[in-house]
Protein backbone atom coordinates (compact mmCIF):
# COMPACT_ATOMS: atom_id res chain seq x y z
CA UNK A 1 0.00 0.00 0.00
CA UNK A 2 2.83 2.42 0.83
CA UNK A 3 4.37 1.74 -2.57
CA UNK A 4 1.04 2.45 -4.25
CA UNK A 5 0.61 5.64 -2.26
CA UNK A 6 4.12 6.82 -3.12
CA UNK A 7 3.54 6.12 -6.82
CA UNK A 8 0.22 7.98 -6.77
CA UNK A 9 1.81 11.01 -5.16
CA UNK A 10 4.73 11.02 -7.58
CA UNK A 11 2.35 10.70 -10.53
CA UNK A 12 0.22 13.56 -9.25
CA UNK A 13 3.22 15.82 -8.85
CA UNK A 14 4.48 14.94 -12.32
CA UNK A 15 1.08 15.68 -13.88
CA UNK A 16 0.71 19.06 -12.18
CA UNK A 17 4.35 19.94 -12.64
CA UNK A 18 4.17 21.71 -9.28
CA UNK A 19 4.82 21.20 -5.61
CA UNK A 20 1.18 20.31 -4.97
CA UNK A 21 -0.14 23.81 -4.21
CA UNK A 22 -2.40 26.10 -6.21
CA UNK A 23 -4.21 29.38 -5.69
CA UNK A 24 -7.77 29.11 -4.39
CA UNK A 25 -9.80 31.01 -7.05
CA UNK A 26 -12.17 32.35 -4.38
CA UNK A 27 -9.85 33.37 -1.53
CA UNK A 28 -6.65 33.97 -3.48
CA UNK A 29 -4.75 31.87 -0.95
CA UNK A 30 -2.53 28.85 -1.58
CA UNK A 31 -4.07 25.43 -0.94
CA UNK A 32 -2.95 21.83 -1.41
CA UNK A 33 -3.82 20.67 -4.92
CA UNK A 34 -2.52 17.88 -7.15
CA UNK A 35 -4.68 18.66 -10.18
CA UNK A 36 -5.28 21.56 -12.54
CA UNK A 37 -8.67 23.21 -13.00
CA UNK A 38 -8.86 21.65 -16.47
CA UNK A 39 -8.43 18.24 -14.84
CA UNK A 40 -11.15 19.15 -12.31
CA UNK A 41 -13.54 19.93 -15.16
CA UNK A 42 -12.74 16.64 -16.89
CA UNK A 43 -13.16 14.73 -13.62
CA UNK A 44 -16.52 16.33 -12.88
CA UNK A 45 -17.78 15.64 -16.39
CA UNK A 46 -16.63 12.01 -16.17
CA UNK A 47 -18.37 11.33 -12.87
CA UNK A 48 -21.47 13.50 -13.22
CA UNK A 49 -23.74 11.03 -15.00
CA UNK A 50 -22.64 7.95 -12.99
CA UNK A 51 -23.11 9.91 -9.77
CA UNK A 52 -26.64 10.84 -10.80
CA UNK A 53 -27.47 7.28 -11.82
CA UNK A 54 -26.20 5.81 -8.56
CA UNK A 55 -28.34 8.23 -6.53
CA UNK A 56 -31.76 7.79 -8.12
CA UNK A 57 -31.36 9.42 -11.50
CA UNK A 58 -32.88 12.73 -12.48
CA UNK A 59 -36.34 13.78 -11.33
CA UNK A 60 -38.40 13.75 -14.55
CA UNK A 61 -42.05 14.04 -13.46
CA UNK A 62 -41.85 17.84 -13.76
CA UNK A 63 -38.88 18.93 -15.94
CA UNK A 64 -39.74 22.58 -15.28
CA UNK A 65 -38.48 22.18 -11.71
CA UNK A 66 -35.00 21.31 -12.94
CA UNK A 67 -35.11 24.25 -15.36
CA UNK A 68 -36.00 26.55 -12.48
CA UNK A 69 -33.22 25.22 -10.23
CA UNK A 70 -30.73 25.53 -13.09
CA UNK A 71 -31.83 29.13 -13.68
CA UNK A 72 -31.28 30.07 -10.03
CA UNK A 73 -27.94 28.28 -9.99
CA UNK A 74 -26.68 30.00 -13.14
CA UNK A 75 -27.70 33.39 -11.70
CA UNK A 76 -25.50 32.75 -8.66
CA UNK A 77 -22.65 31.22 -10.66
CA UNK A 78 -22.48 34.35 -12.82
CA UNK A 79 -21.49 36.46 -9.79
CA UNK A 80 -19.07 33.88 -8.37
CA UNK A 81 -15.29 34.20 -8.24
CA UNK A 82 -14.93 31.44 -10.84
CA UNK A 83 -17.75 32.22 -13.32
CA UNK A 84 -16.28 30.47 -16.34
CA UNK A 85 -16.66 26.93 -15.01
CA UNK A 86 -19.20 24.84 -17.00
CA UNK A 87 -21.78 24.95 -14.20
CA UNK A 88 -24.72 22.58 -14.37
CA UNK A 89 -27.51 21.90 -11.88
CA UNK A 90 -29.89 18.93 -11.77
CA UNK A 91 -32.63 17.67 -9.45
CA UNK A 92 -32.15 14.05 -8.37
CA UNK A 93 -35.06 11.71 -7.72
CA UNK A 94 -33.97 10.91 -4.19
CA UNK A 95 -35.89 11.29 -0.91
CA UNK A 96 -32.74 11.86 1.18
CA UNK A 97 -32.19 15.59 1.88
CA UNK A 98 -28.88 16.29 0.18
CA UNK A 99 -26.98 18.44 -2.31
CA UNK A 100 -23.49 18.06 -3.70
CA UNK A 101 -20.92 19.52 -6.07
CA UNK A 102 -18.32 17.71 -8.15
CA UNK A 103 -15.10 19.38 -9.28
CA UNK A 104 -15.63 21.60 -12.29
CA UNK A 105 -19.08 22.93 -11.34
CA UNK A 106 -21.33 19.87 -11.78
CA UNK A 107 -23.98 19.95 -9.05
CA UNK A 108 -27.13 18.23 -7.87
CA UNK A 109 -29.85 18.82 -5.31
CA UNK A 110 -32.15 16.03 -4.18
CA UNK A 111 -35.92 16.22 -4.35
CA UNK A 112 -35.83 15.36 -0.64
CA UNK A 113 -34.03 18.62 0.17
CA UNK A 114 -36.08 20.83 -2.12
CA UNK A 115 -39.32 19.97 -0.33
CA UNK A 116 -37.79 21.21 2.94
CA UNK A 117 -37.07 24.70 1.57
CA UNK A 118 -39.44 27.65 1.99
CA UNK A 119 -38.50 30.08 -0.78
CA UNK A 120 -36.00 30.92 -3.50
CA UNK A 121 -33.59 32.64 -1.13
CA UNK A 122 -33.18 29.37 0.79
CA UNK A 123 -32.61 27.53 -2.49
CA UNK A 124 -30.04 30.20 -3.37
CA UNK A 125 -28.35 29.58 -0.02
CA UNK A 126 -27.98 25.87 -0.80
CA UNK A 127 -26.78 26.40 -4.36
CA UNK A 128 -24.52 29.31 -3.46
CA UNK A 129 -22.82 27.15 -0.84
CA UNK A 130 -22.24 24.36 -3.37
CA UNK A 131 -21.01 26.83 -5.99
CA UNK A 132 -18.28 27.95 -3.59
CA UNK A 133 -17.19 24.33 -3.07
CA UNK A 134 -16.79 24.04 -6.85
CA UNK A 135 -15.39 27.53 -7.48
CA UNK A 136 -12.84 27.23 -4.66
CA UNK A 137 -11.93 23.70 -5.79
CA UNK A 138 -12.67 22.27 -2.34
CA UNK A 139 -13.45 18.81 -3.70
CA UNK A 140 -10.14 18.57 -5.52
CA UNK A 141 -8.36 19.88 -2.43
CA UNK A 142 -10.06 17.23 -0.28
CA UNK A 143 -9.01 14.59 -2.79
CA UNK A 144 -5.41 15.82 -2.68
CA UNK A 145 -5.37 15.64 1.12
CA UNK A 146 -6.88 12.17 0.92
CA UNK A 147 -3.99 11.02 -1.23
CA UNK A 148 -1.65 11.94 1.60
CA UNK A 149 -3.71 9.97 4.11
CA UNK A 150 -4.95 6.92 2.27
CA UNK A 151 -4.45 5.89 -1.33
CA UNK A 152 -7.56 3.76 -0.97
CA UNK A 153 -9.71 6.84 -1.47
CA UNK A 154 -8.83 6.56 -5.15
CA UNK A 155 -10.74 3.30 -5.46
CA UNK A 156 -14.39 3.17 -6.39
CA UNK A 157 -16.80 2.22 -3.63
CA UNK A 158 -19.41 -0.49 -3.57
CA UNK A 159 -23.04 0.53 -3.18
CA UNK A 160 -25.67 -2.15 -2.59
CA UNK A 161 -29.40 -2.14 -2.06
CA UNK A 162 -30.47 -4.02 1.08
CA UNK A 163 -32.67 -6.82 -0.23
CA UNK A 164 -32.20 -10.57 0.17
CA UNK A 165 -33.14 -11.54 -3.38
CA UNK A 166 -31.10 -10.99 -6.52
CA UNK A 167 -33.62 -8.35 -7.55
CA UNK A 168 -32.31 -6.10 -4.79
CA UNK A 169 -28.66 -7.05 -5.00
CA UNK A 170 -27.58 -4.24 -7.31
CA UNK A 171 -23.98 -3.46 -6.43
CA UNK A 172 -21.82 -0.91 -8.16
CA UNK A 173 -18.47 -2.60 -8.49
CA UNK A 174 -14.99 -1.20 -8.95
CA UNK A 175 -15.88 -0.34 -12.55
CA UNK A 176 -18.60 1.95 -11.22
CA UNK A 177 -18.72 5.24 -9.35
CA UNK A 178 -15.87 6.85 -7.45
CA UNK A 179 -17.42 10.29 -6.93
CA UNK A 180 -17.77 9.85 -3.18
CA UNK A 181 -14.11 10.77 -2.89
CA UNK A 182 -15.13 14.34 -3.76
CA UNK A 183 -18.39 14.30 -1.80
CA UNK A 184 -16.85 13.23 1.49
CA UNK A 185 -17.08 15.36 4.63
CA UNK A 186 -15.75 18.84 4.03
CA UNK A 187 -13.36 20.38 6.53
CA UNK A 188 -14.51 23.02 9.00
CA UNK A 189 -12.53 25.67 7.10
CA UNK A 190 -14.09 24.66 3.80
CA UNK A 191 -17.60 24.82 5.25
CA UNK A 192 -17.04 28.25 6.79
CA UNK A 193 -15.54 29.44 3.51
CA UNK A 194 -18.49 28.09 1.51
CA UNK A 195 -20.90 29.77 3.93
CA UNK A 196 -19.14 33.13 3.81
CA UNK A 197 -18.72 33.38 0.06
CA UNK A 198 -22.05 31.65 -0.63
CA UNK A 199 -23.81 34.42 1.31
CA UNK A 200 -21.71 36.95 -0.61
CA UNK A 201 -22.92 35.46 -3.90
CA UNK A 202 -26.52 35.62 -2.64
CA UNK A 203 -26.13 39.33 -1.88
CA UNK A 204 -24.51 40.03 -5.27
CA UNK A 205 -27.36 38.18 -7.02
CA UNK A 206 -29.95 40.22 -5.11
CA UNK A 207 -31.18 37.63 -2.60
CA UNK A 208 -32.00 38.15 1.07
CA UNK A 209 -29.07 36.58 2.97
CA UNK A 210 -31.35 35.81 5.92
CA UNK A 211 -32.43 32.80 3.86
CA UNK A 212 -29.02 31.27 4.59
CA UNK A 213 -29.34 32.01 8.31
CA UNK A 214 -32.79 30.42 8.52
CA UNK A 215 -31.57 27.37 6.65
CA UNK A 216 -28.57 26.86 8.92
CA UNK A 217 -30.75 27.28 12.02
CA UNK A 218 -33.05 24.56 10.71
CA UNK A 219 -30.09 22.30 9.95
CA UNK A 220 -28.67 22.70 13.47
CA UNK A 221 -32.02 21.80 15.05
CA UNK A 222 -32.37 18.74 12.83
CA UNK A 223 -28.80 17.59 13.53
CA UNK A 224 -29.32 17.95 17.27
CA UNK A 225 -32.49 15.91 16.94
CA UNK A 226 -30.54 13.11 15.19
CA UNK A 227 -32.85 13.04 12.17
CA UNK A 228 -31.67 9.88 10.39
CA UNK A 229 -32.36 10.96 6.80
CA UNK A 230 -30.49 14.21 7.33
CA UNK A 231 -27.57 12.48 9.07
CA UNK A 232 -27.27 10.12 6.10
CA UNK A 233 -27.60 12.92 3.58
CA UNK A 234 -26.55 16.54 3.74
CA UNK A 235 -25.04 16.44 7.23
CA UNK A 236 -22.70 13.58 6.31
CA UNK A 237 -20.73 15.91 4.03
CA UNK A 238 -21.87 19.32 5.37
CA UNK A 239 -21.95 19.11 9.19
CA UNK A 240 -23.93 22.08 10.57
CA UNK A 241 -22.89 24.06 13.63
CA UNK A 242 -23.98 27.05 15.70
CA UNK A 243 -20.66 28.65 14.75
CA UNK A 244 -21.78 28.64 11.12
CA UNK A 245 -25.19 30.10 12.04
CA UNK A 246 -23.55 32.96 13.94
CA UNK A 247 -21.14 33.72 11.10
CA UNK A 248 -23.97 33.76 8.55
CA UNK A 249 -26.07 36.00 10.79
CA UNK A 250 -23.26 38.56 11.15
CA UNK A 251 -22.97 38.84 7.37
CA UNK A 252 -26.73 38.97 6.82
CA UNK A 253 -27.21 41.75 9.36
CA UNK A 254 -24.72 43.89 7.46
CA UNK A 255 -26.77 43.48 4.24
CA UNK A 256 -30.49 43.58 5.15
CA UNK A 257 -33.18 43.12 2.53
CA UNK A 258 -33.08 41.39 -0.81
CA UNK A 259 -35.40 39.10 -2.75
CA UNK A 260 -37.14 36.03 -1.31
CA UNK A 261 -39.07 35.16 -4.50
CA UNK A 262 -41.50 32.93 -2.62
CA UNK A 263 -44.19 33.07 -5.32
CA UNK A 264 -41.80 31.87 -8.03
CA UNK A 265 -40.50 29.12 -5.75
CA UNK A 266 -44.02 27.97 -4.82
CA UNK A 267 -44.98 27.81 -8.49
CA UNK A 268 -41.92 25.74 -9.38
CA UNK A 269 -42.52 23.40 -6.43
CA UNK A 270 -46.27 22.94 -6.96
CA UNK A 271 -46.13 19.51 -8.61
CA UNK A 272 -43.58 17.89 -6.32
CA UNK A 273 -45.39 19.23 -3.27
CA UNK A 274 -48.68 17.89 -4.58
CA UNK A 275 -47.04 14.48 -5.00
CA UNK A 276 -45.56 14.35 -1.49
CA UNK A 277 -48.24 11.93 -0.15
CA UNK A 278 -47.34 9.53 -2.98
CA UNK A 279 -43.63 9.74 -2.14
CA UNK A 280 -44.41 9.09 1.51
CA UNK A 281 -46.29 5.95 0.44
CA UNK A 282 -43.24 4.97 -1.61
CA UNK A 283 -40.88 5.36 1.36
CA UNK A 284 -43.28 3.33 3.51
CA UNK A 285 -43.43 0.68 0.77
CA UNK A 286 -39.63 0.44 0.75
CA UNK A 287 -39.69 -0.16 4.49
CA UNK A 288 -42.45 -2.77 4.20
CA UNK A 289 -40.61 -4.55 1.38
CA UNK A 290 -37.43 -4.59 3.47
CA UNK A 291 -39.44 -6.35 6.18
CA UNK A 292 -40.83 -8.76 3.53
CA UNK A 293 -44.36 -7.46 4.07
CA UNK A 294 -44.92 -7.51 0.33
CA UNK A 295 -48.71 -7.30 0.32
CA UNK A 296 -48.64 -4.08 2.33
CA UNK A 297 -45.85 -2.69 0.17
CA UNK A 298 -47.81 -3.39 -3.01
CA UNK A 299 -50.92 -1.78 -1.54
CA UNK A 300 -48.94 1.37 -0.75
CA UNK A 301 -47.47 1.39 -4.25
CA UNK A 302 -50.93 1.05 -5.80
CA UNK A 303 -51.88 4.21 -3.92
CA UNK A 304 -48.70 5.94 -5.06
CA UNK A 305 -49.14 5.08 -8.75
CA UNK A 306 -52.74 6.28 -8.68
CA UNK A 307 -51.61 9.61 -7.26
CA UNK A 308 -48.68 10.01 -9.68
CA UNK A 309 -48.55 7.45 -12.51
CA UNK A 310 -45.57 9.21 -14.17
CA UNK A 311 -43.14 8.44 -11.33
CA UNK A 312 -40.76 5.67 -12.46
CA UNK A 313 -39.60 4.80 -8.93
CA UNK A 314 -43.08 3.62 -7.95
CA UNK A 315 -43.37 1.22 -10.89
CA UNK A 316 -39.79 0.05 -10.46
CA UNK A 317 -40.28 -0.96 -6.83
CA UNK A 318 -43.56 -2.67 -7.71
CA UNK A 319 -41.80 -4.66 -10.42
CA UNK A 320 -38.94 -5.50 -8.08
CA UNK A 321 -41.32 -6.87 -5.44
CA UNK A 322 -43.37 -8.84 -7.96
CA UNK A 323 -40.14 -10.29 -9.36
CA UNK A 324 -39.12 -11.35 -5.87
CA UNK A 325 -42.49 -13.11 -5.57
CA UNK A 326 -41.85 -14.86 -8.92
CA UNK A 327 -44.87 -13.10 -10.43
CA UNK A 328 -42.79 -12.43 -13.49
CA UNK A 329 -45.43 -11.40 -16.02
CA UNK A 330 -46.89 -8.86 -13.61
CA UNK A 331 -43.38 -7.70 -12.77
CA UNK A 332 -42.62 -7.22 -16.46
CA UNK A 333 -45.70 -5.03 -16.90
CA UNK A 334 -44.68 -2.82 -13.97
CA UNK A 335 -41.07 -2.56 -15.14
CA UNK A 336 -42.22 -1.64 -18.65
CA UNK A 337 -44.02 1.32 -17.06
CA UNK A 338 -40.87 2.24 -15.13
CA UNK A 339 -38.73 2.28 -18.27
CA UNK A 340 -41.35 4.25 -20.18
CA UNK A 341 -41.52 6.84 -17.39
CA UNK A 342 -37.74 7.37 -17.36
CA UNK A 343 -35.79 5.58 -20.10
CA UNK A 344 -32.58 7.27 -18.92
CA UNK A 345 -32.37 5.49 -15.55
CA UNK A 346 -30.37 2.27 -15.32
CA UNK A 347 -32.10 0.32 -12.57
CA UNK A 348 -35.40 -0.72 -14.22
CA UNK A 349 -33.41 -2.15 -17.13
CA UNK A 350 -31.49 -4.39 -14.73
CA UNK A 351 -34.62 -5.65 -13.00
CA UNK A 352 -36.45 -6.13 -16.30
CA UNK A 353 -33.47 -8.02 -17.68
CA UNK A 354 -33.58 -10.40 -14.71
CA UNK A 355 -37.32 -10.93 -15.15
CA UNK A 356 -36.83 -11.59 -18.86
CA UNK A 357 -34.27 -14.27 -17.97
CA UNK A 358 -36.77 -15.89 -15.62
CA UNK A 359 -39.31 -15.92 -18.46
CA UNK A 360 -36.77 -17.48 -20.83
CA UNK A 361 -36.53 -14.38 -23.01
CA UNK A 362 -32.75 -14.41 -23.28
CA UNK A 363 -32.37 -11.93 -26.14
CA UNK A 364 -34.61 -9.36 -24.45
CA UNK A 365 -32.77 -9.93 -21.17
CA UNK A 366 -29.43 -9.28 -22.83
CA UNK A 367 -30.70 -6.09 -24.47
CA UNK A 368 -31.98 -4.73 -21.17
CA UNK A 369 -28.83 -5.60 -19.25
CA UNK A 370 -26.63 -4.00 -21.91
CA UNK A 371 -28.86 -0.91 -21.84
CA UNK A 372 -28.38 -0.70 -18.08
CA UNK A 373 -24.60 -1.02 -18.45
CA UNK A 374 -24.50 1.93 -20.84
CA UNK A 375 -26.11 4.09 -18.15
CA UNK A 376 -24.22 2.64 -15.17
CA UNK A 377 -22.07 -0.51 -15.10
CA UNK A 378 -23.14 -2.79 -12.23
CA UNK A 379 -21.84 -6.01 -10.80
CA UNK A 380 -25.21 -7.76 -11.05
CA UNK A 381 -25.74 -6.93 -14.72
CA UNK A 382 -22.17 -7.94 -15.54
CA UNK A 383 -22.61 -11.33 -13.89
CA UNK A 384 -25.84 -12.13 -15.71
CA UNK A 385 -24.41 -10.96 -19.01
CA UNK A 386 -21.52 -13.32 -18.34
CA UNK A 387 -23.93 -16.23 -17.87
CA UNK A 388 -25.89 -15.29 -20.99
CA UNK A 389 -22.76 -15.09 -23.14
CA UNK A 390 -21.43 -18.33 -21.68
CA UNK A 391 -24.65 -20.11 -22.64
CA UNK A 392 -24.36 -18.67 -26.16
CA UNK A 393 -20.81 -19.99 -26.50
CA UNK A 394 -19.29 -16.50 -26.44
CA UNK A 395 -16.45 -17.49 -24.10
CA UNK A 396 -14.25 -14.39 -24.40
CA UNK A 397 -17.15 -12.01 -23.85
CA UNK A 398 -18.31 -14.10 -20.88
CA UNK A 399 -14.85 -13.90 -19.33
CA UNK A 400 -14.85 -10.10 -19.69
CA UNK A 401 -18.19 -9.79 -17.92
CA UNK A 402 -17.22 -12.21 -15.14
CA UNK A 403 -13.98 -10.30 -14.60
CA UNK A 404 -15.99 -7.10 -14.17
CA UNK A 405 -18.38 -8.79 -11.73
CA UNK A 406 -15.52 -10.32 -9.75
CA UNK A 407 -14.17 -6.86 -8.91
CA UNK A 408 -17.24 -6.04 -6.82
CA UNK A 409 -16.67 -8.64 -4.11
CA UNK A 410 -19.44 -10.24 -2.06
CA UNK A 411 -21.44 -13.31 -3.06
CA UNK A 412 -21.77 -12.23 -6.67
CA UNK A 413 -18.06 -11.51 -6.85
CA UNK A 414 -17.25 -14.96 -5.49
CA UNK A 415 -19.67 -16.57 -7.95
CA UNK A 416 -17.97 -14.69 -10.79
CA UNK A 417 -14.56 -15.89 -9.60
CA UNK A 418 -15.92 -19.42 -9.59
CA UNK A 419 -17.07 -19.06 -13.18
CA UNK A 420 -13.68 -17.69 -14.19
CA UNK A 421 -11.91 -20.62 -12.54
CA UNK A 422 -14.01 -23.03 -14.61
CA UNK A 423 -13.18 -21.15 -17.79
CA UNK A 424 -9.41 -21.17 -17.26
Q: Sum up the overall morphology in one term.
A: globular
If strands are numbered along the chain, what order do they take across the biggest sheet?
3-5-4
Instruction: Say what oligomer this is.
Output: single chain
Topology order in helix (H) and strand (E) letters: HEEHHEEEHHHEEHHHHHHHHHHHHHHH
Average pLDDT figure: 83
Strand segment tally: 7
**What is the rounded distance between the termini?**
29 Å
Number of helical runs?
21
Main pleated sheet: 3 strands, mixed
Beta-strand fraction estimate: 5-15%
Overall SS class: mainly alpha
Q: How many domains?
A: 2
Rg computed from alpha carbons, rounded to a whole number of angstroms: 23 Å
Protein name: Peptidase M48
Keywords: Hydrolase, Metal-binding, Metalloprotease, Protease, Signal, Zinc
Domain Peptidase M48: 64-249
Signal peptide: 1-22
Chain-wise SSE layout:
Blueprint lengths: L1 H15 L4 E3 L6 E3 L4 H18 L8 H15 L10 E5 L6 E4 L3 E5 H4 L5 H16 L2 H12 L9 E2 L10 E2 L15 H17 L5 H15 L3 H5 L1 H4 L4 H13 L7 H13 L1 H15 L3 H14 L4 H13 L3 H14 L4 H13 L3 H14 L3 H13 L3 H12 L3 H14 L1
Parallel strand pairs: 3-5
Antiparallel strand pairs: 1-2, 4-5, 6-7
Helix pairs in contact: 3-5, 5-7, 5-8, 7-11, 8-11, 13-14, 13-15, 14-15, 15-16, 15-17, 16-17, 17-18, 18-19, 19-20, 19-21, 20-21
GO biological process, one term: proteolysis involved in protein catabolic process
GO cellular component, one term: membrane
Protein name: Peptidase M48
Report on this model:
GO terms for molecular function: metal ion binding; metalloendopeptidase activity. The two termini are 29 Å apart. The protein has 21 helices and seven strands. The longest helix has 18 residues, at 37-54. The chain has two domains: 2-157 and 178-266, no CATH class; 275-423, Serine Threonine Protein Phosphatase 5, Tetratricopeptide repeat (Alpha Horseshoe), CATH 1.25.40. The strands form three sheets. Strands 3-5-4 form a three-stranded mixed beta sheet. A two-stranded antiparallel sheet has the order 1-2. It has 424 residues and is mainly alpha-helical. Mean pLDDT is 83; it is low at 8-19, 144-169 and 171-179.
Amino acid sequence: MMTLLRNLLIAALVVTGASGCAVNPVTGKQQLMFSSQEQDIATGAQHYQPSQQSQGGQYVVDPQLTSYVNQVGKKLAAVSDNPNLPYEFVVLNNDVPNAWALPGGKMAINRGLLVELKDESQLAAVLGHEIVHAAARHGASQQSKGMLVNAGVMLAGVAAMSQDSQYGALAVGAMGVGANAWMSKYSRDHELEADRYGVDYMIKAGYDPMGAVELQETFVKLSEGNQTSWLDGLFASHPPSRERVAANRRMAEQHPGGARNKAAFDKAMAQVRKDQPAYKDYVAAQKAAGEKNYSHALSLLDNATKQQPKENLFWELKGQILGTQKKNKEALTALDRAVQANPQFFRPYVYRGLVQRQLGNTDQAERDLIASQRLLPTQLASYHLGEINLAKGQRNQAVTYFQQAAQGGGEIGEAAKGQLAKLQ
